[in-house]
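note to self: dont lose this again. the chain is below, predicted strucutre after it. 508 aa total, dont forget to put it in the shared folder this time
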Amino acid sequence: MTEIQTHDIEIEQHGNFVDGKEVEMTGAEMIDVRDPATGAVIAQIPNSTREDVDRAMRSARAAFEGKEWGGMDIRARARLINRLADAFEANLETLYRLETRNNGRPINETRAQLSRLPDFFRYFAGLALARRDDVIPVEGNYLNYTLRTPIGVVANCTPFNHPLMIMCKSLAAVLASGCTTVVKPSEYTPLTTLKLAQIFTEAGLPDGVFNVVLGYGKDSGRFLSEHPDINKLVLTGGTEAGQIAGSAASKVFAHQTLELGGKTPVLVFDDFDVDQAVNLAAFGAFIGAGQTCVCGSRHLVQQTIYDEFVEKLAIKAQGIRVGDPFDPATQMGPVISQRQRQRVMSYAQFGRDEGARAIAGGHEASVEGFEEGYFVQPTVFADVRSDMRIFQEEVFGPFTSITPFTDEADALRLANDSPFGLGAAIRTNHVARAHRVARDIKAGIVWVNDHHRLDPASPWGGVGLSGIGREFGTESFNDHFDVKSVMVAMNDEPQDWYGDPEGRRRLN
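---
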């Protein structure tokens, strides 16, 4: 890393992280990284070439096949991963502040989220220790058992909204399984990924196990996903990006875990407290400035409480404090870029044009002292029909809609009227209804009377256009291995298929 001075602002210049160190990228096309709260350039990163990506992949392959990492005992690896978790924890204050500066989330949100991440690694270290292969009863005098071997090099493309959290969902399983990785963070938010690679290397992670390549998704991300030597692709991003990258990775038959777009329905039944439903709605819709794949973006509210819910959510949204992400009083920061702010504004206009009723926001937000930042008002549209664009399409900003329903069947019909199926939420005190709706809704994750909750033991992923595969849990851990079946004959009887016709009792 080097630093340059521009108008009294220090701008860090970073290179890729390969073989345990940052690589100086002389002559590379450089990309500006901006603070979304101020619009100021805070760093520059290279747009990696195919050769740059290939260098990182060769490093990861060498580490995977080398004795230091590839030959490491499982218990030694688990102890190392726990040391990495401790190192992560020791550097949390630095990581909080760097992530807040880079992606604009309020410091209170960033601190609460990143504090969870060391336990991701501890959980997967535990899985590594607890792993057992199977002995399978089979017909005849045979012993059949399985052996699992790490699949190899994992390519991981991460988004801007939760840079460290989403990267760590994959990285923890990669390390615990004995694989290696090349991470391509979003060009908007590369700084904490680079910092964590440095922290882990200093804590003892062997060189080449965790490499980072930088650049645009359409260039370095594409080169990574289509690289002939990847064994698994993990990508969190938009559905179109997942389709492109997944198609490329399928050509080399790489395993895939893709967490893509979402349009989360939130079903609010009239037996649930309206004030609590409104509080949960605000949390689900506006945490992270709504830039989450599981943002509570479609609120389906029973007709009998619809007007009350609409009135109270409007008041709640209008009262959210938008401002400086480093101010502890701030409740919502900026969106990631001017481009993303324009996208949110375009959907606000779609809502007005289609006849929905704007009850909160719908405009850019002005923050004193941060006039160049990318702030948006928390936005709520009511009286939204299922054929409207704001009901069907992902906005990815502080934007939610409200639609009335009559009964449980109507609520499910509206909830499932979407090609997406990542998250869903149910607000009800009726136990049987909660389980019925959770069963029948098309989603990979369902929250009952809550939102946005995750745990490293709980599988995470979607259905439909929201992707394939699962992160977290034993599902993710197991998908980092190839399974080998070993069949051992347990008798000494001679066998001669061609010379003993009478012995041909069984072929398979």
